[in-house]
Amino acid sequence: MAIENNPVEVFDTVFNRNDTQLSSQLENDSLEARIFKIIVIGDSNVGKTCLTYRFCGGIFLKNPEATIGVDFREKTLELDGERIKLQIWDTAGQERFRKSMVEHYYRNVHAVVFVYDVTSLTSFESLPEWISECSRHSVGPMVPRILVGNKCDLRAHREVPTSHAQRMADGYNFPLFETSAKDPAEKEHVDSIFLTLAYRLKNHKPLRLKQPSESSSSLLWYQREHEATGCQC
Ligand SMILES: Nc1nc2c(ncn2[C@@H]2O[C@H](COP(=O)(O)OP(=O)(O)OP(=O)(O)O)[C@@H](O)[C@H]2O)c(=O)[nH]1
Ligand SMILES: [Mg+2]
To answer: Which of 3, 39, 49, 62, when mutated, tests ligand 1's pocket best, judged by the most ligand atoms within 8 Å of its CB?
Structure first.
């Protein structure tokens, strides 16, 4: 589901949606909501796709392929009686799959999630480079950033102690979360990571979602994936 493909074609092929289902979804989504763009960044293989899939689809995605360009996921939340739509950009960790997309990742972003793998010291040591790439792209200091250590279920293989990660997080003044996209017992914790961000973003300047135009294929893409992942939102 890479952006290099035509998103409409991809979803027609993969999920075989029909026009009636789609137009009813579009009607539902014509209700106004505040929408926020969250990008998920980090080395390849740390579990960005699995984490975002766990949050938006509620399940652990088995055998994910390396992300090419970006995959979009979406979840709508009701916070204090208000609709908040999180548009999550699951970015590619491999340089060759991301280089043409980097500018798009950071444009108008509302929050950034930096992911490392607790069983990979290398992925942890890459974080400063990801963090500085983000700053180089003019992401302002008021844009919330968080660190997420994934794959905590692999206890015997841990290479990054919590204390080291906490020290780095404190150095940047970012919140730190450790979790597992795979462990079903961690599902609520994964949700809470994104909920924490959503609550912080709630007070930010709103970007209103109105009835999407026919040509808004990327928005259509979000909506179709939203349906396909079975989000209850
Ligand atoms: N044990 C365990 N494996 C995980 C977890 N999350 C992801 N994985 C595995 O890690 C591998 C990479 O996961 P992805 O989600 O594709 O990683 P990614 O960061 O999206 O990688 P790129 O798309 O290449 O940037 C896959 O084999 C997943 O099954 C986790 O929490 N625990
Ligand atoms: Mg991926």
So the answer is: 49
ipTM of the assembly? Answer: 0.99
Q: Whose CA is nearest to atom 13 of ligand 1?
A: 47
Token pair in block for residue 219: 């928005």
Lowest mean pLDDT among 82-96, 107-121, 204-218: 204-218
C-alpha 92 to ligand 1 mean position (Å): 12
158: its two tokens:
């841990």
Q: Residue 76: give its domain's CATH number.
A: 3.40.50.300
How far, in Å, CA of 204 to CA of 78, rounded?
Answer: 16
HSE, side-chain direction, 13 A CA sphere, residue 187: 10
Considering the domain boundaries, does residue 217 fall inside one?
no
Range of the domain at 193: 10-207
pLDDT tens per residue across span 74-100:
999 999 999 999 999 999 999 999 999
Q: What is the pLDDT of residue 32?
A: 81
Rounded to the nearest whole angstrom, what is the distance from the C-alpha of residue 139 to the centroid of ligand 1?
26
